[in-house]
Amino acid sequence: MPTPARVAALVAMVEAGQYVEAIEAFYAEDASMQENLGRTTVGRARLVENEQAALRRNTIVARKGTVALVDGDHTAIRWVFEMTDDTGATRVLDEIAWQRWDGDRIVEERFYYDPGQLR
To answer: For labelling, which of 71, 79, 85, 108 has a CA lying 20 to 30 Å from the CA of 96?
Structure first.
């Protein structure tokens, strides 16, 4: 079960733009991640690869003021990201991350958002 301080450290790292480092520091080796009802990606190494690919396609800035709720092994985090692609187009992604932790590592994460935000 994560402590509120551990979750706050994750939020601080993401808000500082350290996305890959956050995956390396907070996700279990066999962690899974899923976007809405899309395919599930399994394995911290693959999660890092996916994040690195997203960062090659976009400049991503996390807005400050993230809200995180902790209840036992589960957390809910509201993230708001501004993503700017190589044409200069900026989109805002407002999502909820539902996470299951095992000790101090995330083992399962699912993002919930309106896909229309990405158009």
So the answer is: 85
